[in-house]
Structure formats: C-alpha cells, structure tokens
Amino acid sequence: MTDIELKVFGEEHLHGVARLEEECFSVPWTCDGLKTELGNKFARFYVAQNGGEIVGYIGAHNVLGEVSIANIAVSPKYRRQGVGGLLLNKLISVSEEENAEFVTLEVRKSNLGAILLYEKAGFCVVGERKRFYESPVEDALLMTYYFENRKEKDL
To answer: Smallest Cα–Cα separation from 93: which of 60, 71, 126, 117?
Structure first.
C-alpha cells in the first residue's frame, strides 16, 4: 500500500471530500452539507491522504455511546489497497476510547466489497432497511460492531 496518512477532517479537506463524494455516490453530500459537520460536536470524521490527495474518508456520529457511520468512501483507484480498513479501524479505535457501546452502519445489499470489509472488521448483519437508498432504489443491510467482540483486525 502507498503512504496513507489519516487526519481529522478539517475545513482544508472540504472540497477534496466533496469531490470524493461525487466520485463515489449517486446522491453525494454537498460541500455545504459537509461543512456543517465541522461544528457538530457529535461528528467524528477522518480523511485518508496520499501525498496531499484525499483518497478516502469516513464520517460518523457518536451520540450517547452509539456510533453511527454516515459515510465511508474510497476513491476507486485506491480500493482494495487497505484504505477502507485503515479508516474503519481508526473510527473503531476512537469509538472504543470514547467508551461507545457499538458502531453501526447501513450498506447497499449489492455492495459486496463493502459488506466483506465490514464483516472482516467484525461487523454482523442485524437487520434490513427496505428501500433505504435511492438512485437506484435499493434495500440496505444494517450492520453493527459490538465492542465486546473486539479483536485486533488487520484490514
């Protein structure tokens, strides 16, 4: 893997993360939407950079010890190189330090690569959300990571 640095999401990352959103998602967050997270005391956002280029990011909210991942994105040219695993491990570690009870997320049922990454990290399917996604409409799997099952993972 290349030399990836993880950093706390800041204003200097806004445009790069917004570009990544457009590259990865059919309904991307806007730059303004991302900017509101900078002042959100519950937000936990991190970026992955390679030589200053933003190649991935993860964003979550920790409310009363329940961490919900809002988004995780990796540039297509950096997928399957460990970037998603680094971001996921970072968020899990920070959440554990904050004494969170669990980390949860939704994922498109058709996104097998992401599902495999989450399972490898220790997430398990706990439910389904019908017609959760749009463009195209698709069901989501609800996956959760419980800290009592934590093992060191090499993602």
So the answer is: 60
The number of beta carbons lying within 10 Å of the beta carbon of residue 142 is 16
Q: Distances in Å between the alpha carbon of 66 and those of 1, 38, 42, 145?
A: 32, 19, 10, 11
Mean pLDDT of 77-90: 93
Query: 């010890």: which residue's tokens?
Result: 65
Which active-site residues does the annotation give? 106, 118
φ, ψ dihedrals at 4, nearest 5°: -95, 130
Residue that is written with structure tokens 């419980």 in the block: 146
Q: Quick: pLDDT tens for 86-128.
A: 999 999 999 999 999 999 999 999 999 999 999 999 999 999 9
- Listed residue (11, 59, 56, 5) closest to 35, CA to CA: 11
CA nearest 39: which of 69, 14, 73? 14
pTM of the model: 0.89
